[in-house]
Input
Amino acid sequence: MQDRAGFEEFVRQLPKAELHVHLEGTLEPELMLALAERNGIAAPFPDVDTARAAYDFADLQSFLDLYYAGADVLRTEQDFYDLTRAYLTRAAQEGIRHVEPFFDPQTHVVRGVPFGVALAGILLALEDAEEDFGITYRLIMCFLRDMPADDATHTLHTARLYPHRIAGVGLDSAELGNPPEKFAGVFAEAAELGYRRVAHAGEEGPASFITDALDMLGVERIDHGVRCLDDPAVVARLVAERVPLTVCPLSNVKLRVFDEMAAHPLKRMMDAGLLVTVNSDDPAYFGGYLTENFMAVADALDLTLADMTALAKNSFAASFIDDALKATYIAEVDAYSAGA
Ligand code: HPA
Ligand code: ZN
Output
């Protein structure tokens, strides 16, 4: 058995996919301050230490308030490029081979930053990282569930100006009070237009939101979904239908979904036969990127190298790439772990 440093190095270089990361949530305080200065606007925080000290959250909403305040420094195509490039550069250094990142177009459009400006910067950075680092991608745009459904529909229609650039639609922001059914119409239209579909469900909201996201939105993957354990029938269905769950351990503890990592249900979810993946959600705000998320659960829940390998394989299995590419990546995981 390796020591902890060896274990961590194994995890860092393990080929992985990241399926639940909000690009706006990768905005490190250093870049936030630099972009505020470049754009001649006030930053939400006077310095990096003040920003990091403020990242102490009581719940999802208290995080969202700072996350949207931080995103206000993103104004130009170059800003979105720099944000995305910084994340992908780190991703390449920690074994990430494939990403399905989220962005929140409405957050930018309501501030007067056009959809196409945000999208162009993000896509250029994704294309460059595919060329420079070999990281493949499928971009997902999330609708903000605390905005009216009509606004989500308007966003979907705007996206039609950029055919084949956005692979899927998702649903994020404040879950409580904004159930899946509110977005049934826009998800039905997205399905007709050929978009893949995911939704945050069962993070702060009840297990029934997971079922409703499957039945009313037709989603193919659930983001978070940790509250499924409140209802054995929901777990049984997720197992039977092999619905992937993108779990974010550091996020869950930072947002007080669970009091401490030792109470995190990831291991129980794996043991129940759920197709779980580990992800970073908003790493600049939650204290770690993908490797730190793997290590946090490994340390707290006594996970093994075999568990790490299984989670890495799950990340590719749960992705939206075609079966041939999935097989290629999973063979890479096997070759890597055989050589470790
Ligand atoms: N949950 C809901 N909305 C979000 C999150 C999250 O974890 N991160 C960014 N927007
Ligand atoms: Zn999220």
